[in-house]
């Protein structure tokens, strides 16, 4: 019964910034491990950033490390992804996900949002 809804995607020029948000059903953010994943045309879905249920562990894909920041607001039941210094290679549909066990493998995550499109122009 976990429901996730992403927002904040759009078109941005290279070097720009976007902030994605994932509105979750009640208590989801504080009870589950959360993550952001992305899928570009013709590519497999890949891990972007994850944060464990307590917020004490965070991991980033090396491709976005230093540019993206994942955070969670338990009171608002919302997960965020602040994206800066965007590159054309970041163009993809970005998905919010939740799982009982933290893993970097997208295939092992349980709950998914519908995704939000991020397009970075050169």
How would you characterize this protein structure?
The protein is 3% helix and 48% strand. The radius of gyration is 13 Å and the shape is globular. The termini are far apart. It has 122 residues and is mainly beta.
| Bulk shape | globular
**Alpha-beta classification:** mainly beta
What is the alpha-carbon Rg in Å?
Answer: 13 Å
Extract low-pLDDT stretches: none
Averaging pLDDT over every residue, what do you get?
Answer: 95
Oligomeric category? single chain
Strand % is: over 45%
Please report the number of helical segments. 1
Please give the largest β-sheet: 7 strands, mixed
Amino- and carboxy-terminal Cα gap: 40 Å
How many distinct beta strands?
A: 11
Helix content: under 10%
Pattern of helices and strands: EEEHEEEEEEEE
List the helices and strands and how they pair.
Layout: E1 4-7, E2 10-13, E3 18-24, H1 28-31, E4 33-39, E5 46-51, E6 58-60, E7 68-73, E8 78-83, E9 92-99, E10 111-112, E11 116-121
Parallel strand pairs: 2-11
Antiparallel strand pairs: 1-3, 3-8, 4-5, 4-9, 5-6, 7-8, 9-10, 9-11
Summarize, please.
The chain has 122 residues and is mainly beta. It is built from one helix and eleven strands; from the N terminus they run βββαββββββββ.
Q: Which characteristics define this entry?
A:
122 residues, mainly beta, 7-stranded mixed sheet, 4-stranded antiparallel sheet, 11 strands, 3% helix, globular
